Amino acid sequence: MPTIVDLTSGAVERERRDDEPGHYDGTILGLRLMTERTPPGLDPYDPRALLFVAAGRLGGVRAPGLAKAVFLAKSPLTGVAGEAHALGPFAAGMRAAGVRALAVTGRAARLSYLLVENGEVSVRDAEELRGLGTAATTDALRARHGRDASVAAIGPAGENLVRYASVVTDLAHPAARYGIGAVFGAKNLKALVCAGDAEAPVADPGALADVAAFYREALPGNRLAAWQHGEPGFAGWTGEPPAPGYVAVRNFSVTAAAGLRAPQEGGYAGRAGTLRGACPGCPNDCLKVYAPPSAPERRSGGLGQEAFPSLGWNLGIDDLDTVLAANALCNDLGLDPVSLGGTLAFAMECAGRGLLPGGPAFGAAAALPGLVADVAHRTGELGDLLAGGAARAAAALGPEAARYAMTVKGAELPCFDPRVQPGLGLGYALAPGGPRYDALEHDLDFDPVEGLTYCFPEAARIGAEPAPAGRLDAERGTRTARLLRLWSALDALNVCLFASSPTRPLTLDRLTGLAAAVLGREFPVAELLAAGQERLDAMRAYAAREGLAGREELPARLHEEPVAEGPYQGAVLEREAFAEARAAFHAELRW
Fold first, then answer.
1. Strand, coil or helix: what is 347?
2. Contact at 8 Å (CB) between 554 and 434?
3. Residue 347 to residues 76, 226, 390, 556: CA-CA distances in angstroms?
């Protein structure tokens, strides 16, 4: 049952949808509300636009894989449904405050925040918080509503309508992608505060405890889960630099040895903040906070796997402290590190090619903090230009610049290079909400030589058989669609991808057992996959409604510039093979 708040009038209503099948109070419900309550063609910043935030029926339960909330709105970056997820304690905070799903319309007359407490929602004044970063905002609101309150806040980037502004939950855990923070800002909504001590209901606590016990036992023997649990964790790139072509270097333009270093494990010493306990009920402890001692706000250093490639190698920077500080600053100012990194890399390449005189240069580590701040505050012509993202900046600079905007649907690509993993490229291009590195499990994991062989039987259950990672054909298209549908199901239910099938301990049977334990009924694999299909269909239908169907092309560079050297030398996405794989992908999803 979603709670619906009109910020213009302050009215609060509750809409009964519990008998409506298939939405689980998550993304699917949000898409239904956006379709029903907003007209086509609405500007994402229009007061009538709908913002949806939900833990859903599973999210926020204290168990492995359930510390996940969804933030959904029409994206100011892509123009289609923008879905971002916050891992960490916020979903549990929503459930403790007595809500599963919240929809927000209208625009407050003054900067405001929403307080959810014991199931009741009220609009509160937040003018004194204007201009504050997400950490200071969280501190101020916890001082009012208790230190255990969960807070989702925007920083100056959201207030200034940067099109890839994020929402940051509980200091360090962002719902980063697609500009949801700018939608908050357009509504004059500084934050969402959840306070209360209610327990999320669980139908079968014993069965849930059995899943948790299994997960703790399985964790050390699962290669990816153990890596996530260890230090510095899977977001802390260490050791030798990745092989050329594995991740983006200098705006995907360099696929030979770049002379850039990777951090060493000892480099993280003295930089750790929170290392354990970020996700209530989950023993994996994937989410870790790192920042250099000199960072102005160290608590904001929640480190995602994309941060170092996006703010480091893709900008020609390899200094660990520079990247950690930039990541913490992004979270405090409320910026998506992936889109920011992609936009800065675009600007750096354009500057190097004479298309952006006076623009930033690759490798300019000392300039990075100022660039981050200029974008968040829209300072000067350059800050304002880059606040719109790479695609809009390219349109402003002229047709010669378009080639260097590494975007799909207007959103910047994640830094895992799809020339080496073409299934990722299909996911970037064809996922109806835009490119994500975590839309599906990566191709290399299913490579017969380099892959995670222990997961092959699990992947086979959904029809994803092993294949050489670089092979691009119809079979790749079918496999990609099946993997995308599985992780779409997890997104639909607010289940963590990084705990789940096919490569982590929550296998299909454990996932359905987890859902059954919470919901109190049988939950077959077929229902799980049907939820994944419905979410994808609903996102695609919303894009079509907005006149933005298609847009399934990757940047030309990925089709035309092969990897230059190393073990992946020659890897490129041949257009004919890509088209064949795309047709098979569509056929598998019945599109």
1. helix
2. no
3. 20, 38, 8, 17
d(CA 155, CA 175): 13
Within 8 A by CB and 6+ apart from 306, the residues are 337, 338, 414, 415, 437
Output b/e per residue, 513-524; b: 16+ Cβ within 10 A: bbbbbbbeeebe
User: For residue 353, which phi and psi values (nearest 5 degrees)?
Assistant: -100, 10
Dihedral pair phi/psi, residue 509, rounded to 5°: -65, -40
Bridge partners (DSSP) listed for residue 69:
86
53: CB partners within 8 A, 6+ apart: 69, 70, 71, 72, 94, 101, 102, 104, 152, 192
375: closest CA among 140, 172, 175, 182? 182
User: Inter-axis angle of helices 27-37 and 525-545, to 10 degrees?
Assistant: 30
pTM: 0.98
pLDDT along the chain (591 residues), means of 10: 95 91 96 98 98 98 98 98 98 98 98 97 98 98 98 99 98 98 99 97 98 98 97 93 97 96 94 95 96 96 96 98 98 98 98 98 98 98 98 98 98 98 98 95 96 97 97 98 98 98 98 98 98 98 97 97 98 98 98 98
